[in-house]
UniProtKB/TrEMBL annotation:
<dbReference type="InterPro" id="IPR036514">
    <property type="entry name" value="SGNH_hydro_sf"/>
</dbReference>
<dbReference type="InterPro" id="IPR050023">
    <property type="entry name" value="OctT"/>
</dbReference>
<keyword id="KW-0378">Hydrolase</keyword>
<protein>
    <submittedName>
        <fullName>SGNH/GDSL hydrolase family protein</fullName>
    </submittedName>
</protein>
<dbReference type="GO" id="GO:0016787">
    <property type="term" value="F:hydrolase activity"/>
</dbReference>
Amino acid sequence: MTTRGPVLLVLGDSLAFHGPERGEPADEPRLWPNVAAAALGGRAELVAGIGWTARHAWHAVTHDPRVWALMPHVDALILGIGGMDTLPSPLPTALRELIPTLRPDRLRRAVRAGYQRAQPRLARAFAALPGGGPVALPPRLTVGYLEQCRTAVQAIRPGIPVVAALPSVHRAEIYARVHAGRPAAERATREWAAGAGVALLDLPALVGEHVLSGQGNPDGMHWGWPAHAAVGAALADLLRPVLEG
């Protein structure tokens, strides 16, 4: 009789599938979800997108039939999401996400180029405001969506372990290296996780030096393979006692 290893459902953003040079296929073995799954003798099912916030993850849980098909087989839920929520967002997220829908194409390209030019300057200016200015998703909403993801999955798979991630760090010039929203998001995530019985993956401790010293992707946000390896190994260490106990 054959046995299968654990199935990790990973809800993530581009940090879950972007390497030192580019976005990679979800089955690239060096990506941190696959590093963790391989160390546990199982597989990772990655549901992620560029720029995804916790709200996007909740939308995937409730709207993506691929996620529904996975539910009977999931052994652990990894909420590798929330870091993009902390980034400066001079334009409200709902409006920013409408830019790709603008027509004609010339208008869309002009608006996008204008926003990309303005974003670093606006991020720097808003960072001087109380609280550091607007972010992609406020911490209270981030943890609200994380909790909805957790309760929805555990309603179908009671008792499975849940791991969330503290927001990572960045040195991205497109955001003028501003990350004023991260401390408040970390506090909210820690408080929510403690109350919900969720384990935490400390991304700043694992990848902070790698990113801030310029060893990661030239964009100043995504990671090189050593950081993916470190995060994957740390995740496996968190899950192993629960899954193998």
